[in-house]
Amino acid sequence: MICCLNPQCSQPLNPDSATVCRTCGKSITLSLRNRYRPIKPLGQGGFGKTYLALDEDRLNANCVIKQFSPQAQGTKSMKKAVELFNQEAVRLYELGEHSQIPTLLAYFEQETYLYLVQQYIEGQSLAQEVGRNGPFSEQQIWDVLFDLLPVLHFIHQRQVIHRDITPMNILRRKSDDRLVLIDFGVSKQFNLNLATQPGTRIGTEGYSPLEQFRGGRAYPASDIYSLGATCIHLLTNAKPDSLYNPLDGRWIWRDYLQKQGRRTSDRLALVLDTMLKDLVNERYQTAEEVYRDLPAPPNGGRGNAQGAMAVLPPDGQPLRRSSPPQNPSRPPISGRAAQSSSGSGRPTSGRPTSSGRSVSGNRVGGGSAPPSSGANSARSRPPTSGSSGSSGSKRPSFRLPVSGSNTATCRCLYTLEAHTSWVTCVAAHPVTPTFASSGLDDTIKVWNLRTGDLLLTLTGHTKAVNAIAFSPNGKVLVSGSDDFSIKIWDALSGELISTLTGHGRDVTALTVSADGQFLLSGGEDRAVRVWQMATGRLVKTPVGAASIIKAIAASPDGQLFASGGMDKRIALWSMKTAELVRDWVGHAAAINAVAIGPQSQLLASAGKDRVIKLWSLESGQLVRELQGHGRDVNAIAFTPNGKRLISGSSDKTVRLWDIATGRLLETLNDHLDSVNSVAIAPDGKWFVSGGSDKTVRVWQLKAIS
């Protein structure tokens, strides 16, 4: 069967041979982006419909399509709906490397609708499970906590609050019996004070704490409350609203169990009651605190760790569940639950890659713009012709920053808004005052650096463009894409020169050697490849890369190139032989960016652990760490004199650093979403940044004494 994607269609299932829906008469889309074939409706919510689909590029593996067609009325409601739908895509992209969070496969616009494609989790929700099998036992509740607390630890470390943890949003995966946390559509970032700004009251009544419904605030402790409410629902098979006595201001779930002739251990009661405190500062503040108060498994698997961090598994690695005793005795309780039980008053307070990178929007010239989402929706679409370059016949809209960063060192000159989806990469031309940008809208754009005029739009890639780079003489531009290909373009005319194939998955990183002879690429196929620029011939695939490659940089002296990726390791390769010279673990999480200084003495690396590190290129020894970003660092670039470093982060900031001292010189807050790339002009007077807010921003970089 095939499914009609008209959201108003009452009976969307049709035979495989159908081209027109037999119910609503609309044309049937056989597959989205020539890849995702909808076969069955799964459900419908406030933002649209959900479909089961087949991923034809992955041997017809099951996946889930979420179609954005909200019932929201009015401009304000529509804007909020668009924001939440886009937010879910962003969160899945950032968090999807955890095995208990669905992976984002794609995010794009087609035929006037926005679509989000994610990993299909086969299994039933805990709400279905308790409805079918009855209340959970105490042992099952311990299992839920053992399985989900590491997931909360993972998302909270990345400064994300789920805000809607309920039995419906937790699935038990059929393949391995693990619990998977879903529906990040209302999740929200929190700031360094651990609180979100007051906003829309979002969550599910009965499971969300008072701070969410009264003031729209949410904290990590808010998710802990929701998990506690979920647990008492599972334990009693009753909604949390019926388990609270508002007259006495206390939870009565234990009374409810007693009437059924059931009881729990004092330990579980203390843990759940502490999770469910009305006052935020009386609850557990972090997942680590809760985890520390769980009973040790019979085999001692958790150990008796001294610190809360020690008892949790490494980021992205779920704990292997080991059930506690059926009737655990009450060992001494440490932490917040012990303080709560003592009656001594308030306790003291305790905080896109896989195929997810294939998120992409329509190519310029195809489809319609997504629903308006405020000022950022004001953009023009330059005309295109054919599959190569097209001259920008009119200037795209650009606007002066509302609160421009007019400080002692940097000033945002203008903001360019021609891309229709996230900007993935920017590259400065080595000779002329121009630069290029690429995006998840499958396009590459070439701009005049000084005026912001759009000079060329290059189309030809069929999926998102992840990386671009100019040759040292500026004559050619290279690009790498989720369509597994590398394309070489004439940088002046925009004509496509050649297409290189060889990568087995998305191409995520590119650079050109200092002499312009070799093109270096890396991808999700866990391979680094060396190509001859003049002929496009694959010269070598170096042996030694063991994980997804996310970043590549070539040394200016032409001797080495560096790579980094998901395995947290930095690798140095010989430019002459493509042999591995040295590699080492550089970061605590995936490496997103590497750069080599203009004197070929320093190597900079940055990643998901929010740290920038400077290394001696000769010895591999750590020289200095730069800390200050609040989320993943996605991009780094040395200034031409080698004295400064510019970085971009998922915390929406661009930062300027002094390399000699490690001092943070300036923080620029103009971007409205993650900053994905930065590039500095050869004269060091300008730089550009691109981000998930679909904008490219051009900055003047003033001299610093």
SSE arrangement:
Elements: E1 2-3, E2 13-14, E3 36-45, E4 48-55, E5 61-68, H1 75-95, E6 104-110, E7 113-119, E8 123-125, H2 126-133, H3 138-157, E9 160-161, E10 170-173, E11 179-181, E12 188-189, H4 210-215, H5 220-236, E13 244-245, E14 250-251, H6 253-259, H7 266-275, H8 287-292, H9 308-311, H10 336-341, E15 389-391, E16 398-399, E17 410-416, E18 423-428, E19 434-439, E20 444-448, E21 454-458, E22 465-470, E23 476-481, E24 485-490, E25 496-501, E26 507-512, E27 518-523, E28 528-532, E29 538-540, E30 549-554, E31 560-565, E32 569-574, E33 580-585, E34 591-596, E35 602-607, E36 611-616, E37 622-627, E38 633-638, E39 644-649, E40 654-658, E41 664-668, E42 675-680, E43 686-691, E44 696-701
Antiparallel strand pairs: 1-2, 3-4, 4-5, 5-7, 6-7, 8-10, 9-12, 10-11, 13-14, 15-21, 16-17, 17-44, 18-19, 19-20, 20-21, 22-23, 23-24, 24-25, 26-27, 27-28, 28-29, 30-31, 31-32, 32-33, 34-35, 35-36, 36-37, 38-39, 39-40, 40-41, 42-43, 43-44
Helix pairs in contact: 3-5
